[in-house]
Amino acid sequence: MTINQVCQWIEEIAPLSLQEEYDNAGLQIGDRSREITGVLLTLDVTEKIIEEAIAKHCNFIIAHHPLLFKGLKQITGNNYTERCVISAIQHNIAIYAAHTNLDNINIGVNRKIAEKLSLQNCHILAPQTNQLLKLITFVPITHADIVRDALFAAGAGSIGNYDACSFNSEGIGTFRANEGTHPFVGDLHEWHHEKEIRIEVIAFVHQRAQIEKELLKVHPYEEPAFDWIVLQNQSAATGTGMLGTLSSPVSEIEFLQQVKDTFQTPLIRHTALLGKPIHKVALCGGSGSFLLPAAIAAKADVYISADFKYHEFFNADNRLLIADVGHYESEQFTKELLKEQIQKKMPTFALHLSTTLTNPVQYF
Questions:
Q1: What's the pLDDT tens digit per position in 189-240?
Q2: Residue 28 pLDDT
Q3: pLDDT tens column, 108-145
Q4: Core vs surface per residue 13-35: b (16+ CB within 10 A) or e
């Protein structure tokens, strides 16, 4: 198994196109063609993580947080980032980051947190737009089934929990083949009328290249006609945060204790208790204060996230309870998520969950 094969699998479920503009997800250090001896899964990359990888004979580290966010102007070992880069290169260890691209999928970081809290009826809190395309193509009736099947196999036609979705309408196409052409039907220099099917399917932006490749491979025409249209529809499969419900309402104190136990945190920073039961829960792993308006709009009883600044707590405005559990604490289950997803594709592959605590925040 090569590094590139694992990278490709991760990017099938969490495409790099879904990462935020500020992010730097993907392979950061290493040769894609190298064979993997073992994989270490971690939240952060630190010097102790590099040491753990060496001790466990792992030459591939997959982290949630990127080691490299910005370009390095020098690599002299002046800080932990530079020292990690030096050590990783010296020991032929590749480093990969699955960050906001893993946050922004329905089965990603926030879904895992929701599972830990036993939430039900979960869906993305803030769905993304501009992630969906519509493909329209025109195919002779005789080849419509072949083309549809190829498009579906490439990932087109999925809407929510449905797949193989398409719209089909019949019409007449016209064309005239000129010099240098080899028409599938019709004669050179003569108008030709052909009964065709107009096929429309939905696809994600990151699927476009593969779908177009498959379309051109099976379409019988020498010059297939097709259009891509950008849609403004929200995508239920991509976006930030998660919204779900408890099986039954509980008191604020009971819920905060459950959160404290689940995230194994010594403290939770929170807004004033409102004396209302907790039933609908909004959450976002990592720094999620930007999603507070969405949580309020969704009429959540509580919003769980991290890194709230002092004045941002005022924005709850007695409309819901904010529970800040800490950045590391909120994302600590990402290692498990990565292991589960990779093992679906590679069930016998050597995957190690890091035992090194990388949380830089201590509590006194």
A1: 999 999 999 999 999 999 999 999 999 999 999 999 999 999 989 888 899 9
A2: 97
A3: 999 999 999 999 999 999 998 888 999 999 999 999 99
A4: bbbbebbeeebbbbbbbbeeeee
Confirm or deny that 301 is annotated as ligand binding.
no
The count of residues in the chain is 364
329 known ligand binder:
no
Provide the strand spans (E) within the chain: 26-29, 39-42, 60-63, 94-97, 120-128, 132-140, 167-176, 191-204, 226-231, 235-250, 269-270, 278-287, 302-306, 321-324, 351-353
Q: Taking CA 158 as the corner, what is the angle to CA 155 and CA 164, rounded to the nearest 5 degrees?
A: 85
CATH architecture of 3-102+333-353: 3-Layer(aba) Sandwich (3.40)
Query: Using an 8 Å Cβ cutoff, are 4 and 56 in contact?
Result: no
Q: What is the largest CA-CA distance in the chain?
A: 85
Is residue 23 a known part of a binding site? no
Residues 6+ apart with CB under 8 A from 50: 61, 84, 87, 88, 91, 93
In this structure, the strands spanning 351-353 and 167-176 are: unpaired
Q: pLDDT digit string (tens) for 313-329? A: 999 999 999 999 999 99
Residue 195: φ, ψ to 5°: -70, 125
Q: What is the pLDDT of residue 71?
A: 83
pLDDT of residue 13: 93
What digits encode the pLDDT tens for the residues 151-169? 999 999 998 889 999 999 9
CATH 3.40.1390.30 segments of the chain: 3-102+333-353, 109-127+239-325
149 a known binding residue?
no
pLDDT value of residue 325: 98
Tokens of 364: 């006194």
Alpha carbons within 13 A on the beta-carbon side of 350 = 16
Q: 327: annotated binding-site residue?
A: yes
CATH fold, domain 130-233, is Alpha-Beta Plaits (3.30.70)
Q: Which segments of the chain belong to CATH 3.30.70.120? A: 130-233
Beta bridge partners of 171: 196
Q: Name the fold adopted by 109-127+239-325.
A: 3.40.1390
- pTM comes to 0.87
